[in-house]
Design brief:
This protein is of the alpha/beta class and 313 residues long. The chain has a domain of 177 residues: 3-Layer(aba) Sandwich (Rossmann fold), CATH 3.40.50.150. It is built from nine helices and 14 strands. The strands form three sheets. Strands 2, 3, 4, 5, 6, 7, 13 and 14 form an eight-stranded mixed sheet that branches. A hairpin with a 4-residue loop joins strand 8 and strand 9. Helix 2 runs antiparallel to helix 8. It starts with a helix and ends with a strand. The site of N,N,N-trimethyl-histidine has 11 residues, from strand 12.
Length: 313
C-alpha cells in the first residue's frame, strides 16, 4: 500500500512535469481547504449544496420509504446534515434498525461524524470504515440490504474513465434489494455556473490557491500564492467547469522534497479541478455502461441538481 506522502509526491512530480501542469483536486482538502469548502457551500453563488439539501428535504420520505432496515452507506463523510435528513425520514424513529456505514480517508472526520450521530439518534448503530472509496469498495459489508449514497456531486470531479470505474465498482457489489443514491450537478446556464466558481468574496479563489500551501507544507516547496491567479470557466464542449492557477509572471519554484525545480512562463496554468455537469442523456449513458439502471430522479424545480436512485440492471 502506498502512503499519502508517497502518493502526493508521485502525483505532484508527474503533474508538474507534464505539458499542461496539473495537481489532482483531492489535495484541496487539508484542514484549511475543508474549512474553505464548507464556506463555499454557504455562498449565495454556490447553488449545489443548497439545492441538494432542498431536494433531500422534499424527497427524503420517498427515498427512505422502501428502506425500513439495513445499512445506510455513505461514500465520504462529514456532511451529517444530509444523512440526518434521511434518518429523520426513516420508518422507525431514532435510527432504529439502521446501521450507518460511512467510508472516509480521515479517521478523525469519521470519529466526529459518528459521535454526533450517535448522540442524536439513540437507536442508530455506526460502523465507520477508514478507506478511500475509489479503491476499497470491497470493505463495504454485505450482510444487509444497503442504501449506498454518494452526495455532493463528487462524481463530477472524476474523469470519464475514473467515473466509469467507480460506478462499475459500486454496480459490481450491489445485489437485489440494494440501491445507490448519487448526487449530480446538471448542465445549466453558463453565467450561473461560472458565478458559482468565481464568488464575489474570493472564497473559491482562496480554496484553489490553498492547494499550493499543501504542496509547500508537505513537500517543502516555495510557491508564492500571491503570484498566482484563480481562473475558473465553463468548458461548453466537455460540459465541465475547469479551475486553474495562472502564473502572474515567469518564475521558478523549488520543490525541495522532490529535488525538483518547476519553471513557469508568464500566464502558464496549473489545472487543479474539473467539475462536470451532467445532462440526463449523458447520465443515463454512463449509468447504463456501468450496469446500473436509474429508477427515480429527484430534482429541484429549476433542475439545477439531481439525486438519482440506481439499482443494478
Ligand atoms: C466538492 C466536488 C462538489 O466541484 O463543485 C467547489 C468542489 N470546487 N468549488 C464542486 C468545488 C470549487 C465541489 N465538489
Amino acid at each position: 500500500m502506498t502512503s499519502y506522502a508517497e502518493e502526493l509526491a508521485r502525483d505532484i512530480r508527474a503533474g508538474l512535469s507534464s505539458g499542461q501542469k496539473q495537481i489532482p483536486s483531492k489535495y484541496f482538502y487539508d484542514e484549511r481547504g475543508s474549512r474553505l469548502f464548507e464556506e463555499i457551500c454557504r455562498l449565495p453563488e454556490y447553488y449545489p449544496t443548497r439545492t441538494e439539501m432542498a431536494i433531500l428535504e422534499e424527497h427524503a420520505g420517498a427515498i427512505m420509504e422502501p428502506f425500513t432496515a439495513g445499512d445506510l452507506v455513505e461514500m465520504g463523510s462529514g456532511a451529517n446534515w444530509k444523512i440526518c435528513r434521511l434518518l429523520d425520514a426513516a420508518a422507525q424513529p431514532h435510527g432504529a434498525g439502521i446501521r450507518y456505514v460511512p467510508l472516509d480517508v480521515s479517521e478523525s472526520a469519521l470519529q466526529a461524524a459518528a459521535e454526533e450521530l450517535i448522540r442524536m439518534y439513540g437507536g442508530l448503530e455506526v460502523l465507520g470504515i477508514v478507506a478511500d472509496f475509489t479503491r476499497n469498495l470491497d470493505r463495504i459489508p454485505d450482510d444487509a440490504d444497503r442504501l449506498i449514497t454518494l452526495f455532493g456531486g463528487t462524481i463530477g470531479n472524476f474523469t470519464d474513465a475514473e467515473a466509469a470505474e467507480l460506478l462499475e465498482g459500486v454496480s459490481a457489489l450491489m445485489r437485489r434489494g440494494d440501491r445507490f443514491l448519487i448526487g449530480m450537478d446538471t448542465v445549466k446556464d453558463t453565467d450561473l455556473l461560472e458565478a458559482a466558481y468565481n464568488d464575489a468574496r474570493g472564497i473559491t479563489a482562496a480554496f484553489n490557491k490553498n492547494v499550493l500551501n499543501v504542496v509547500n507544507r508537505e513537500l517543502c516547496a516555495t510557491f508564492d500564492l500571491d503570484l498566482f491567479d484563480h481562473v475558473a470557466f465553463y468548458n461548453e464542449t466537455s460540459d465541465q467547469i475547469e479551475m486553474h492557477l495562472a502564473a502572474r509572471q515567469a518564475m521558478a519554484v523549488e520543490i525541495a522534497a522532490l529535488d525538483m525545480v518547476v519553471e513557469f512562463e508568464n500566464g502558464e496554468t496549473i489545472h487543479t479541478e474539473i467539475s462536470r455537469k451532467f445532462s440526463r442523456e449523458r447520465a443515463i449513458r454512463i449509468f447504463e455502461d456501468a450496469g446500473l439502471a436509474p429508477q427515480r430522479w429527484f430534482t429541484d424545480e429549476n433542475g439545477w441538481f439531481s439525486l438519482v436512485e440506481l439499482v443494478r440492471r
